[in-house]
Write a structure and sequence with these properties.
The chain has 1 helix and 5 strands. The chain is an alpha+beta fold. The structure holds coenzyme A.
Length: 130
Amino acid sequence: MAELPEEHDLAIRVMAMPADTNASGDIFGGWLMSQVDIAGSIVARRRAQGRTVTVAVDSFQFRKPVFVGDVVSCYAKITRVGKTSLTINVKAYAERQGHSHNSHLVTEADLTYVAVDDERKPRPIPVDTL
Ligand SMILES: CC(C)(COP(=O)(O)OP(=O)(O)OC[C@H]1O[C@@H](n2cnc3c(N)ncnc32)[C@H](O)[C@@H]1OP(=O)(O)O)[C@@H](O)C(=O)NCCC(=O)NCCS
């Protein structure tokens, strides 16, 4: 069982479904990468006050497997804000079916997003007014 991160915000929570499996019947790593990217982008877009694109996956570690029926929660935290880019650390936890009080850290990743304008050109990230 893992402690949930206090400094991260819950960005998304989703159940792993049979359609998300690979040819062996395990949850496909690409599905989890997609959820992590979505979670990071939600936090990035909020901080950038508008459209962002993923420019880099700086690190990505699969620590434990995800199984069908697990509830996956992605927590995200801004770790760097540059001129037009920002980096988000995402931690994904899985609650196993029937064990809703046990969360396992399954994935940790760092992703960089760039704030872009309507023409997909980098734009400055606004000063944080919160
Ligand atoms: C993101 C994109 C607009 C950046 O354009 P660019 O011409 O490289 O822009 P710049 O060189 O001015 O860099 C913009 C910022 O991105 C950062 N950046 C660029 N490439 C990077 C990389 N590989 N890793 C980390 N940061 C990177 C720069 O450091 C800069 O950050 P800063 O302003 O905070 O200092 C462009 O690369 C792009 O459109 N990429 C495709 C994005 C996409 O489609 N993502 C989804 C994939 S399915």
